[in-house]
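Before we proceed, please read the two lines closing this message. Report back on whether the C-alpha cells fit the sequence:
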Amino acid sequence: MKYYLVVGEASGDLHASHLMAALAKQDPQADFRYFGGDLMASVGGTLVKHYRDIAYMGFVPVLLHLRTIFTSMSFCKEDIVAWGPDVLILVDYPGFNLKIARYIHAHTNIPVYYYISPKIWAWKEFRIKNIKRDVDQLFSILPFEVEFFEKRHQYPIHYVGNPTLDEVYAFRMTYLESRETFLKKNALADKPIIALLAGSRKQEIKDNLPDMVRAASFFPSYQLVLAGAPGIDSAYYEKYIRDTNVRLVFGQTYPLLAYADVALVTSGTATLETALFRVPQIVCYHTPIGKVTAFLKRRVLKVKYISLVNLIAGWEVVRELVADTMTVTQMREELHRILTDERYRSQMLAGYDEVRMRLGNIGAPYEAARLILSYLR
C-alpha cells in the first residue's frame, strides 16, 4: 500500500519512523512518501520536504514565516492528491495537519488517519469539530485521552500505548557503553551530571537555556551537559553557552539521561523520557511576558499541568516552573531540594513508577500499524 505521512517536528520524525518500520514489517509492499525528517528517511521511501522548513513555534516566528508555511501547506495538499496514497497519516503538529486533513477530506476519498492525537484537551478544544469531520481514525499515545475523546466528546479513539516507552526500552536493551566510556568519549569530567534538555526549536532554546545554565551553575560539584537537538547547529548553542562550563553533546540524549543525576527539562516528550530513565527533574518553560502568560494559562488552558509526567500521573510528580514562576532562584532552590532531600527524590521516583504502569505495555508502533492495516484492508 501507499502511505503518505506528514510530520512537523523532531519528535514526530522519531515516532513516525518507528511507525513506518512497523508498517513495512506487516506490509511488504509498503511505499512511503512524506513531509518528515532524517529518521524517516533512514527507513525508506521519498522525503518530499524536511520538517525544518515548517517547524515554527510561537506567535511572532509563525507570523514572520507565514508565507513559507502557506506555500508548504499548498504544496503538501497538491502532492498528496497527485500521488494518490491509500491513506494519509498525520503525526501531531495540529496547526498544520488539521488544515491538511480538512482539504483532503473535502476534495478526495483518501482516508485520513491521525497518529499521536492533537492535544485539544489542553487548549483549542473547539478543534474537536474538525477532527470529527475530517479524521477517519484517531490513534492516541496518552492513556487519559481515551476518556476525554470518548466520554466528553463521543468520538471513539484507539489507545495504542506510548512509543516513547518502546524507544527507551529498545535503547536500554542495546546500550552497552559504560559511564567511563561515555565520559571519556565526550571529554567530560568524572563528576555527577546535571543534564540540560532545552527543547528542540530555536525559540525554546533561546527562551529557556540561558536561565537553565545560570541556575545549574550554582552547583560547582556537578558538571553541566546540554543535549543538542536534531536540526540545531552547534553555532546556535554557542551564543548561549559561550564562556560557561556547559558541554554540548549531539545525538546522545538517551546516553546522557542514562548517566545523569538530575535534569532541567522543557515541557514535551523529554519530560516523559527523563521519567522513564528515572532521572529526577524540574520542568522549566519560559514564556515572554511571564505574568500575562501565567494569567492566560489559568484562564485558557483546560489542564492543571503542562508536563506529560504530571498529566499521566494525575498529580504533581515533578515541579513545573512555567512563565512567571520560571526564575533562576526557583530553579536553583528546586535543584538544591532534589539533590539534598532523599525523601523528596524517592517520592518523585515512586511517581515515575506510577506513570510507567499507566502507560501499559510496549509495542505502540506495532499496535498502531496493525490497526491501520486492519482498517485499510
The domain at 167-359 is CATH 3.40.50.2000 (Rossmann fold). The first helix runs from residue 10 to 26.
